[in-house]
Structures are given as C-alpha cells and as structure tokens.
C-alpha cells in the first residue's frame, strides 16, 4: 500500500460533506488513466482478481463439480467414520485427492462442491440485491431531489423511517414470517427494501445541488423536458457516486445474506450457501475446524475484497462520502 | 439550552414513529405468519378447538380490533381467553408465548442481565479501541502505524462475527485452553471468572464497531486539524498538547459520542449472532431460538423492543447533540 501525496490530498479535502459547493468535484479523468492508476495498486488488483475468480467459480460450478467428481448434494458415507459420530476420515477434515476441501462431517458431502455452488447462491443474491437497491435508490433519490416539495417530503420521511429501523432484526422478522418457498428471491426483496435509502439519500442531495447548476438551467431554457434533464444532464454526473456506493454496498449484502442464512432464515437446506455452511459447522467446530474455516475464509476474503475495492475506487474517483 | 418547542416536536415525532413501528410489525405478523392457532392446537385437533383457540387469542377479530387490543396491552396489560384458563399479561404486554407458557415481557426481563453485560462490555471495548486506534492513526498519518491500523480496520470490518467467534473459540478454548467455554457467570459470584467468560463475546461483538470508530475518529481528527481555528491556535504559540486537548479533540470526538448512542441502541441485532454462537442465554439467543421454534410472539416482541430502543436512542442522541454542539441550529427562529 503506497499513498501518493495527491491521493492523500484528495482524501483529506473530500473528508467533509460531498458536493458542498455544488456538484461532485470529480476531475474530468479519462477512463484509461483511471484504469492505469487502478492497475498500479497491487491490493486493489488482488481483490479484483479474487472477486473475478469467485464469479468464474460460480458461473462454472457444474463444470468444476464434474472435474472434482462429487456433486453438492451427494452423500459419501465412505469418507466419514461412523464409529466416531461421522467425523471425516483423514487429516484436515478429509482433504485429499478425492475431496479437495474435505467433506461435511456426518453425511460426507463434498465441501468443494458446496463451496462452489454456495458461491453461486451468495453472488447471485448479493448482485441481484445490489442491482435492485441501486435501481430503487437512484430512482427515488432523483425524484425526491429533482422535484422537491411534497414528493421530496414523502420520500424523505419513508427513507428516515426505514433507516431508523434495526434492519437485521426486521429482516429476520419478515423472513421468519414468510413461507419457505422462493427464499432466494425473498432475500433479495427484503435486503433491497431496507437497503435503498442509503443510496437514495446521497443521490437526492447531489441531485438537489446539480439542478441549480448552469448547464441544467441552460437545458431548461432550451426547452428540455424533465425526463431529458434527469437522464441526460443529471444522471451522467451521478455516475461516479453510484459506482462507489454500489461497490461499497456489495460486501454488506454478501454479509447480510450469509448472516441471515446463518440464523436459519436465509437460504433453505439442502441448497448450499456459505453462511448456512458455517451455521451447520457450529456443532462440529471443536473436532473438525476445517468445516467452518473453509467457508469462513471464502466469505471473509470476499467481503474484504469488495470493501478494499470500494475504498480504492472511491479514492480514485476522488469522492468524499463518509 | 435546548428550546422547549424543539423537544416537544422531537418527542411527538418519536411517538408517531413508534406507532408506525408497532403498526408495521403488527401488519407483518398479521398478514404473513401462519395461523398460530393451528400450531398451538397440535396434532389431535378439531375445527371447533381451533375456533376456540382463535377466540381465546382474539385472532378471530378484525385487524384494527386486534391492533387496538395489542396497543392497549402495551399500556394497560391484557388478558388472553376467559374463565379459569385466562392468562394475564401485565403491562407492558409484548405478547404471550404459548410455546413456553410465559409472557414475552417476562422472558425478556429474565434475560436482560446477560444481554446487558455483553452489550455494555462490548460498547466500552469498541469505544476505547476505536478512539485510541483512530487517534494513533491520525497522529501517525501516512506512516507505518497508520497503514497497519488501516489494514486491521479493514479486516475487522470484513470478518463476519460468527466466523471470528468460531475461530477464537477454536483457538483460545479448544487448542490453547486459555479461556473457558463462555457461560453466563454472575459478576457477584466470581469477578475473574465473569471477565474470562465474557471476554470472547465482548471482542466478537465489538470488533466490527471498533473498526468503524477507528476510521471515523481518524477522519474527524485529521479534518479538525486542518480547520482555521486550529491553525490560529498553533500560530499564537499554544503548546501542541493544549492545541490537541482544547481545540482538536472536542470537536473531533463529539460526533463519535453521539453516533455511539445510536449504535449502542441498535446493538440487539449483533447480539443475536454473538449470543447464539457462544450459547449465552440472552435476549438475542432467545430471538434466534424462537426463529427455529417458529415462536412468533417472541420474535415480534424482540423486534418491537429493538425498534423502540433504536427510535428512543435516536431521539436522545439528537437532543444531546443539540445541547453539546452549538453549531447545530434548531429551526430558523432559534
């Protein structure tokens, strides 16, 4: 990790409220320059590579499982010791040529296959929730910020109300009351329902200051409609904010999905998810630490990678949203 | 002084929000949850028995009547059923768990000491660690210590608390044997044991917050040090220590203290996972258990409690902030 003086300056100067003097003060940086600065940052590249790897793993899950030889739902009683209550045979949770990451104690399901398929579930939920949250946040933020007045008041009150909620507990309450079908879809809905105000609030603020700028007034004077102004004048100026906020939101959603699955209101067994794998490893942690360490490490690294990446992108784009 | 009208407005707003929270929670459970009467009735059930239970619970009534009864129960208590089998639920009645034959309020009160111990200990830990780490980071800005702490905070923010809990437990309890498996030992029984048993839950609950507070403190202090009045104070020759104490720290730490109030009020969510992993019988574990048992009244009671804590915490923090920080203007007239 190396800081150049300019980066520090940007960070220091942007410490306060974003866009205090109007629009986000992003310099007209070319995409290529940003990409080069990004590639120089070893930590950011490592994180990006890890995330790509996980996405690739998720996409290619059926293929990978064919190569490794065991499906995520296949029991392998030969890999566990029935005399010891189902502890995996062999060192480190039964790791070896047969089962690359070892097996689940008790029923001998292949951990590699479950990790790979779990990545599918985790990424799918996190990315869908991010897309939906971003969509809702941008739409409501734009509407509230651009039209102001009563519309703004209603949307702002709703946002305050949702943000005042202890979201995790409410998600648990909602999910525990809902039927168990379509859990993945419900998870996305519930996470997004409580997640959009955080982006909307920032989009609203920036829209409010952007719409006072000259280029918007010029567009208005030349007869542009509200829709044209919003989509052609304001939205492009919000792009970097939205990118940063979105990248920073993903790790939260990955963690939330895992946490909800850990508590038993998320993805329903036998569908694997990393959080749920860790939950089922709790009774075994003392005798078979590999069982919680493997999904735990994958989860931790994924959240860490997204967090670091979001941080770096924010610094690159020179945004200051604390 | 805080203007009285502001306080009144704030309290009124809080009451409205609390009402909406109740309504919202009630709607969730009213609309979404499966019929509790079927659950209570068990296997040898007749339609008549179900009707009887429904009448006893009052869930044969229309929505608004039920909601009214629930609200009344919060203030004045209520009675489930009639005759010799009637169950009294004293105010503030958050509901009645038919699975454990106890009022939800009583269940919460019984488990409050454990939860409070976990919460307060964790809060002290993260506040101290966060502010200390942030100050150190700010003083050593850009140097090794700063970068090291930055790495630690990223790790602390990213590690899911149940993964950390299991790792610590495996390392410190199973492998090294330094700590006992956490149990809720009372402080009055054995202070040293108490400390040993609660140490891991405190660390696990505190670590994420400590990371966030470190970053906040660092950013606030660095920003404050660039303010003009700090430059003035330095220029007129105040000693560095005095500049720090009198001009830099107070404005930098005020927002931390106020955010702390809100985070503390919202701690129940995190306690859910921590208490479950360590098997500490607090409110969080009770909520997690009732998810598994599908004990709706308990989930609803805890949800309401959590929301109340957050809403009230927000208000207290708002009022305190207005009192502490003269820069916050109240309305246009003040």
UniProtKB/TrEMBL annotation, chain A:
Principal subcellular localization: membrane
Membrane spanning stretches: 43-65, 121-147, 159-178, 184-203, 234-254, 290-309
Entry keyword Membrane: yes
Any Pfam family matching the protein: BPD_transp_1
GO cellular component, one term: plasma membrane
CDD domains xrefs: TM_PBP2
Residue ranges of the region described as Disordered: 1-27
Protein's cellular compartments: Cell membrane
InterPro entries cross-referenced by the UniProt entry: BP-dependent_transpt_permease, MetI-like, MetI-like_sf, OppC_N
Residue ranges constituting the ABC transmembrane type-1 domain according to the UniProt record: 119-310
Keywords recorded for this protein, A-Z: Cell membrane, Membrane, Transmembrane, Transmembrane helix, Transport
Family listed: Belongs to the binding-protein-dependent transport system permease family.
UniProt-listed PANTHER family: D,D-DIPEPTIDE TRANSPORT SYSTEM PERMEASE PROTEIN DDPC-RELATED (PTHR43386:SF1), OLIGOPEPTIDE TRANSPORT SYSTEM PERMEASE PROTEIN APPC (PTHR43386)
Protein's name in the database: ABC transporter permease
Automatic annotation (TrEMBL), chain B:
BP GO terms, sorted: transmembrane transport
Subcellular location field: Cell membrane
All residue ranges annotated as the ABC transmembrane type-1 domain in the record: 112-321
Main location: membrane
Gene3D superfamilies: MetI-like (1.10.3720.10)
Sequence intervals crossing the membrane: 12-32, 116-139, 159-179, 199-216, 252-278, 298-321
Family matches, as SUPFAM superfamilies: MetI-like (SSF161098)
Domain of life: Bacteria
Keyword Cell membrane listed: yes
Gene Ontology terms: cellular component: plasma membrane
Pfam families: BPD_transp_1, BPD_transp_1_N
Membrane topology: Multi-pass membrane protein
Keywords: Cell membrane, Membrane, Transmembrane, Transmembrane helix, Transport
InterPro entries: BPD_transp_1_N (IPR045621), MetI-like (IPR000515), MetI-like_sf (IPR035906)
Family: Belongs to the binding-protein-dependent transport system permease family.
Name of this chain's protein: ABC transporter permease
